[in-house]
Design brief:
Chain lengths: 606, 335, 117
C-alpha cells in the first residue's frame, strides 16, 4: 500500500487549529463533483456525504473514494447493515482525515441470501465489521479472507438482527456453549437456520493463513522499523517438518491480563509470538437488538453498559444521534455540563488505564495509586448523579440535574490533587528504566495501518495522526475551549502511554475553562412529549471518547422505537489489528500490547 | 553462648556414634524453628510493607495490633484445601518438585553463622556450597513447570532455566572477590576477616553485582519471570493448590532469608557490629536486606526475559570479572 | 565425612518436610476429584495438544556459554583462596585465564550470540 503514504504524511504533522463546524466546506459542491465522477447518487445528509452505490460497484467505488485525492477516505470507521422491509441496506462509514469529511457508502442488497464483495482488500479494518454483518444479518462477503462468525458461535441458529429472526430453540437451550459443561459435552446445534454447518469453536489461525493484517502483510510497510525479523516465514531453525515447536495457547478468557473476557488464541514459538487471533463475543448481549425494543428515552442509561469506563461519552454519542433525529435543542449550560463530565470521565478512564497497564508491566503499586485518585473522581460523580460507575446522567435535550452546591469547588480541589499526583506517576513508573525498555519500540503500528483499520483515539494519535473529533468535527462547546491534542511519533507502547498521560493534563485544562465560563440557565431543553422521529430519518452521532470515536448510528421508521441502532465501538476497531501489532514480539510484550489498546470488552462485544 | 556450650556438653556425653547425630538433629530443629518462626513473621511483614507502600493497611484483625497472627489461619486454610494433581500432570515430577525446592531452602542455613560460634557447621567450602545449592531451586521450578503438563507452566519452566543462565555466573563471580579478600571460603572466616572493615567497603562493585543477581535468584519482581502473574498467570505453579502450592511460597521466603543472610554475612560483617557484637546484629542486618528486597519488589515493573539475559551477560558478567581483576591488583599492592 | 553429617541431615529435613506436612494436611483436607476438576487449566478453554512439546529454547547458545563460564567460576574459587600466597605470578596467570575467556565472550557478543533471537 505504498500509494497511501502521501496524504497521511501531511496529516501527521499538521498543526491543529479549530475549524468551522462539521459540514464540509462546499459539501454540495463536492457532492456534485463526486456524483459526476463516480456516476452514482451523492447526497448531503447532516455533516456527512451519502454515496448510494449499486451492489456491483461496491468495491470499485470504495477504492475510488479511498484513492481520490478530493475525498481521500482512508479512515474506515465502521460497516453495518440495516434490515429494511423490502431490502437490506449495507452501510459503510468512511472518513477523510485530511479533508475532515465523513462519507457514508450505501448499497441495497436483497433480503434473501444477500451477497456482496468484501471490502477487506480496500481497508483491512473491514474484516471484523464484515464478519459481524455476516453474524448478525447473514450477509455473505465474497472474497473475505476469514469468513467466520465473530460475536456468536459457529452453529448459532440464524442471524439475530434480521427482522425475521426467531430463535427456534426452546428457552432453556438459549444459552451459549460456555454455560454448560462444554468440556465434556460440546454443545452442538442441529438447527442452524441458514448458517454454515457447525464447526469446532476453537480455530487457531493456521500458520500461513491470512493474518488479520491486510496492509502490512504484503508489502511490509506496516510495523515501524524496530520489528524483529524472525517471524512469518518459518525462518526459525528447527520448525521444518511437523512444527511441534509452536505452542498453541489460549490466553483468556480467564486470564489476569486480558482486561475482561477476551480470548487470544496465540501461537508461541518459544517466547516469541508467531500469531495471535483475538476471539471476542464472550460478553455479547446484543445491545443493538435489545435497544430495538425500547423507546428513545429509555436507551440512554443502557448505553453506559457498553464502555463501562466511559459512561458519559457513551450517553453523549447516543444523545447526539437521537437529538439530531428528533431535532432537540440542548441548552448551553447542559452542553457545558456535558463537556465537564465527559472530560472528567476521560481522566477517570485514563487513570484506570494507567493502573492496569502498570499491572500488565508487573508493577503493582502504581495501580493502587491511580485508583486512589480515581476514587476521588467517583465521589464527585456520585454526588452529581448518584451513581459511581454507570451514571445515566445525560438526558435527551440536556442532563438529568444541575450540579449540587459547591460541586465545582470540589472538582477544582480534585484537579489540584490530580496535577500533583501526575508527577508522582511519572517518577514512579514512566521514568523507570525497565518501563522504558519494555515500552519503547514495542507494538508499534504505522499511521497508514492505523487509519485503514479505523483505530481512533489515543492509539491513533500515538501514531502521529493529528485527529481528534473534539477539534476536527467540533461539537458542543469545544470550539470555545482552548486545548491541545497530544501526539506521539511512532505509535509504540511508550507513545500511547505518553499521549494518554498528556490527555489527562489537557482534560484538566478543559474542565477548568468550562467551569469558569459556564453560563446560568436550564439544564434540559424543550423535549416533545412524544419522541417520534420522521420515518426513514437516520443520524450518526459520534463523540471523542477516552478510547476513540464512540458512535451511534440510528435509523428511524417513524415509531417511538428505533428501527436500527448500531454502536460504533472504538475498541472493536482498536483491538482488531492485534496480530499486526504483536507478531514477532515476546509473550511479555503481547500482554503489554493488549494492555496498551485499553480495551473494554463490554464495548467490543456489546 | 552458655546455652550452646551446655548443649554441647550434654550432647558430648552421649555414646560414640550418637553424639554427632543427635547434635545435628538438634541443630536442624533449631534452624527449622528459626526459619519457620521468622517466616510466619515475614509473610505478615511483606503484606504490611506492601500495604504501606500502596497506602493500604494490610492485615489488621487476626492478632491485634496490626494483625500479626494473620499467617496462622492462612496456614490452616492451606492445610484444609484439597490437593489436586491434574490428570495431564507427570505425577512424579509434580509431587517431587515441592520436595526438591525445600532442600536448598533448609540446607542453605547449614553454613550461615548466626553469631560467634552459632553456626550449624562451618564448612571450609562455604561459599561454593551456597552457590551450588542455590541453583537447585531452578531444578525444582523446572520440574514443577514441566511436570504440570500445562502450557503456561511450561513457559514458566523454560523461563526459570533462562533466568539461571542469566544470573548464576555473575552471582558466583561476585562472591569470588569476597573469597579473595578473606582468603577463605568459610563464612565464619569471612566474618572474622571483616573485623577491620565490612566487605561492602572493600568490595562495593561485587556487592552491587551480588545484590542484583541475588534478587534474580529470589525470583521476585523485577525478576519474577518464571511466575509472572500477569503474563503466565502463575507460571510454574499454575496447577499447584493447597499445601503443595504453599511449599513454593515457604521456600521462596526461606530463600529470601538465606540470601539476605548471605548478603549480611559476606558484605556487612555478619554478627559483627560497631559495638556489642552478637546475633542481634546479624538479625538486624538480615531484616534490613529483607526489607530492601521487599521495597524493590513493590516498586519496579517486571523486566523482560531477553533484557534479563542482556543484563546478566553484557553488564553483570563483565563487571564481575573486572571486579576480580581489580581485587587481585588491589591485593597485590596493599594485600 | 563427619563434617557433612549436618548437610545430610539438613537436606533430609528439607526433603521430608513436604511429605510430613502433606500427611498432616491429609487429616484436614477433603479429597473429591472428578474429571473437570483435574482438567488442565488453560484460561477457561479446553486445552489443545500437549504442553510437553519440543520447546524452542532460544537460549541454547547461552547455555553453552554458561557451561564455560560456570566451570571458570569453579576454577576461580580455589585460586581466590590462595591468591595472597601465590604472589604476582598467580595473579598474572589468572588475569591471562580470564582474558582468554573474555576474548571468547567478546567474540560471542560480536557474533550476536548474546542476542535473544
Amino acid at each position: 500500500m505504498s500509494e497511501q503514504g502521501g496524504a497521511n504524511a501531511e496529516l501527521v504533522k499538521e498543526s491543529g487549529v479549530n475549524q468551522g463546524p462539521g459540514v464540509p466546506a462546499g459539501g454540495e459542491d463536492l457532492a456534485d463533483r463526486l456524483a459526476a465522477r463516480l456516476g452514482v447518487e451523492v447526497k448531503v445528509s447532516g455533516p456527512d456525504l451519502v454515496v448510494e452505490v449499486p451492489r456491483e460497484r461496491w468495491v470499485e467505488v470504495a477504492r475510488t473514494l479511498r484513492d481520490d485525492p478530493a475525498v481521500d477516505a482512508r479512515f474506515f470507521s465502521f460497516l453495518t447493515a440495516v434490515d429494511g422491509k423490502e431490502s437490506m441496506t449495507l452501510v459503510a462509514y468512511l472518513r477523510s482525515l485530511s479533508g475532515k469529511l465523513s462519507v457514508a457508502m450505501k448499497t441495497a442488497l436483497p433480503r434473501e441470501a444477500p451477497e456482496v464483495d468484501s471490502l477487506c482488500g480496500v481497508w483491512p479494518g473491514a474484516n471484523w465489521h464484515e464478519r459481524e454483518a455476516w453474524d448478525m444479518f447473514g450477509i455473505r462477503f465474497l472474497g473475505h479472507p476469514d469468513h467466520r462468525r465473530i460475536l456468536l458461535w459457529e452453529g448459532y441458529p440464524g442471524h439475530p438482527l434480521r427482522k425475521d429472526f426467531a430463535d427456534p430453540r426452546p428457552p432453556r437451550e438459549r444459552v451459549g456453549p460456555g454455560d454448560r459443561p462444554a468440556l465434556l459435552a460440546p454443545w452442538s446445534s442441529t438447527a442452524a437456520a441458514g448458517g454454515p454447518p457447525p464447526a469446532p469453536d476453537a480455530p487457531f489461525p493456521a500458520d500461513g493463513a491470512p493474518p488479520a493484517a491486510g496492509l502490512a502483510a504484503g508489502t511490509g510497510t506496516g510495523g515501524n522499523g524496530s520489528r524483529p525479523a524472525s517471524e512469518d516465514e518459518g525462518a526459525v531453525p528447527g520448525v521444518g517438518e511437523a512444527e511441534p515447536e509452536v505452542l498453541e495457547v489460549n490466553m483468556g478468557p480467564q486470564h489476569p491480563s486480558t482486561h475482561g473476557v477476551l480470548r487470544v488464541a496465540a501461537r508461541f514459538d518459544g517466547e516469541v509470538v508467531r500469531s495471535v487471533d483475538p476471539v471476542i463475543g464472550y460478553l455479547h448481549r446484543c445491545f443493538e437488538k435489545i435497544c430495538e425494543g425500547w423507546n428513545y428515552a429509555q436507551i440512554v442509561p443502557f448505553c453506559d453498559r457498553n464502555d463501562y469506563l466511559g459512561a458519559i461519552t457513551n450517553e453523549w454519542a447516543y444523545c447526539r444521534a437521537a437529538e439530531a433525529l428528533l431535532g432537540i435543542e440542548v441548552p448551553e449550560r447542559a452542553e457545558y455540563l456535558r463537556v465537564i463530565t465527559a472530560e472528567l470521565q476521560r481522566i477517570c478512564s485514563h487513570l484506570i488505564w494507567f493502573g492496569t497497564f502498570s499491572l500488565d508491566m508487573g508493577a503493582t503499586t502504581p495501580f493502587i495509586y491511580a485508583f486512589r485518585e480515581r476514587e476521588m473522581l467517583y465521589d464527585l460523580f456520585e454526588s452529581l448523579s448518584g451513581a459511581r460507575l454507570l451514571y445515566g446522567y445525560l438526558r435527551l435535550g440536556g442532563v438529568r440535574n444541575d450540579v449540587p452546591p459547591g460541586w465545582f469547588e470540589e472538582v477544582e480541589r480534585y484537579l489540584r490533587v490530580q496535577e500533583e499526583k501526575l508527577k508522582e506517576y511519572h517518577d514512579l513508573l514512566i521514568g523507570n528504566a525497565i518501563f522504558l525498555s519494555r515500552t519503547k519500540g514495542i507494538g508499534a503500528i504505522s499511521a497508514e495501518d492505523a487509519t485503514a483499520y479505523g483505530i481512533s483515539g489515543p492509539m491513533l494519535r500515538a501514531c502521529g495522526v493529528n485527529w481528534d473529533l473534539r477539534r476536527d468535527e467540533p461539537y458542543s462547546v469545544y470550539p470555545r475551549l482552548d486545548f491541545e491534542i497530544p501526539l506521539g511519533e511512532v505509535g509504540d507502547l511508550y507513545d500511547r502511554c505518553i499521549v494518554r498521560m498528556r490527555e489527562i493534563e489537557e482534560s484538566i485544562r478543559i474542565v477548568r475553562q468550562a467551569m469558569t465560563s459556564i453560563p446560568e440557565g436550564d439544564v434540559v431543553g424543550k423535549v416533545p412529549r412524544a419522541l417520534k422521529p420522521p420515518a426513514g430519518a437516520e443520524a450518526y452521532g459520534r463523540v471523542e471518547g477516552p478510547r476513540g470515536e464512540v458512535g451511534c448510528y440510528l435509523v428511524s421508521d417513524g415509531s417511538p422505537k428505533p428501527w436500527r441502532i448500531k454502536w460504533r465501538a472504538p475498541c472493536f476497531s482498536n483491538l482488531q489489528p492485534l496480530d499486526l501489532m504483536a507478531r514477532g514480539y515476546k509473550v511479555a510484550d503481547l500482554v503489554a500490547i493488549v494492555g496498551s489498546t485499553d480495551i473494554v470488552l463490554g464495548e467490543v462485544d456489546r | 553462648m552458655s546455652i550452646v556450650s551446655s548443649l554441647n556438653a550434654l550432647v558430648g556425653s552421649l555414646p560414640g556414634f550418637w553424639s554427632p547425630l543427635v547434635s545435628a538433629l538438634i541443630k536442624v530443629l533449631l534452624v527449622l524453628a528459626f526459619v519457620f518462626g521468622n517466616e510466619i513473621m515475614l509473610i505478615w511483614l511483606e503484606r504490611k510493607v506492601c500495604g504501606r507502600f500502596q497506602r493500604r493497611k494490610g492485615p489488621m484483625y487476626v492478632g491485634r495490633p496490626e494483625g500479626w497472627l494473620q499467617s496462622i489461619p492462612d496456614v490452616v486454610k492451606l492445610l484444609a484445601k484439597e490437593d489436586i494433581i491434574p490428570a495431564r500432570a507427570d505425577r512424579w515430577l509434580f509431587v517431587l518438585a515441592p520436595m526438591v525446592i525445600m532442600v536448598p531452602a533448609v540446607a542453605l542455613f547449614v553454613v550461615i553463622p548466626f553469631g560467634r560460634g552459632w553456626v550449624p557447621r562451618d564448612l571450609n567450602i562455604g561459599i561454593l556450597y551456597l552457590v551450588a545449592l542455590g541453583s537447585f531451586t531452578i531444578l525444582s521450578l523446572f520440574m514443577a513447570g514441566w511436570g504440570s503438563g500445562n502450557k503456561w507452566s511450561t513457559l514458566g519452566a523454560m523461563r526459570a532455566v533462562a533466568m539461571l543462565l542469566g544470573y548464576e555466573v555473575p552471582l558466583a563471580l561476585s562472591l569470588v572477590g569476597v573469597a579473595m579478600v578473606a582468603g577463605s571460603l568459610s563464612l565464619v572466616d569471612i566474618v572474622h576477616a571483616q573485623e577491620r572493615a565490612w566487605f561492602v567497603l572493600l568490595q562495593p562493585i561485587g556487592f552491587l553485582v551480588f545484590l542484583v543477581a541475588a534478587a534474580a535468584e529470589l525470583n521476585r519482581t523485577p525478576f519474577d519471570l518464571a511466575e509472572a502473574e500477569q503474563e503466565l498467570v502463575a507460571g510454574y505453579q499454575v496447577e499447584y493448590s493447597g499445601m503443595r502450592w504453599a511449599m513454593f511460597f515457604v521456600a521462596e521466603y526461606a530463600s529470601l532469608m538465606a540470601i539476605s543472610a548471605i548478603a549480611a554475612t559476606c558484605f556487612f560483617g555478619g554478627w559483627l557490629g560497631p559495638f556489642a557484637s552478637g546475633p542481634w546484629w546479624f538479625l538486624a542486618k538480615l531484616y534490613f536486606f529483607i526489607f530492601l528486597f521487599m521495597w524493590v519488589r513493590w516498586t519496579f515493573p517486571r523486566i523482560r526475559i531477553d533484557h534479563m539475559m542482556e543484563l546478566g551477560w553484557k553488564f553483570l558478567l563483565p563487571v564481575a570479572l573486572l571486579n576480580i581483576v581489580l581485587t587481585g591488583i588491589g591485593l597485590a599492592i596493599w594485600g | 565425612m563427619d563434617s557433612y553429617l549436618e548437610v545430610v541431615i539438613f537436606v533430609a529435613a528439607g526433603f521430608l518436610f513436604v511429605p510430613v506436612t502433606m500427611l498432616v494436611g491429609k487429616l484436614l483436607r477433603p479429597h473429591r476429584p472428578y474429571a473437570e476438576k483435574l482438567v488442565t487449566y488453560e484460561c477457561g478453554e479446553p486445552s489443545h495438544g500437549s504442553a510437553q512439546i519440543r520447546y524452542h529454547a532460544r537460549y541454547y547458545l547461552f547455555g553453552l556459554l554458561f557451561l564455560v563460564f560456570d566451570i571458570e567460576t569453579v576454577f576461580l574459587y580455589p585460586w581466590a583462596v590462595m591468591v595472597r600466597h601465590l604472589g604476582p605470578i598467580g595473579l598474572i596467570e589468572m588475569v591471562v585465564f580470564i582474558a582468554v575467556l573474555v576474548v571468547g565472550l567478546v567474540y560471542a557478543w560480536c557474533k550476536g550470540v548474546l542476542e535473544w533471537v
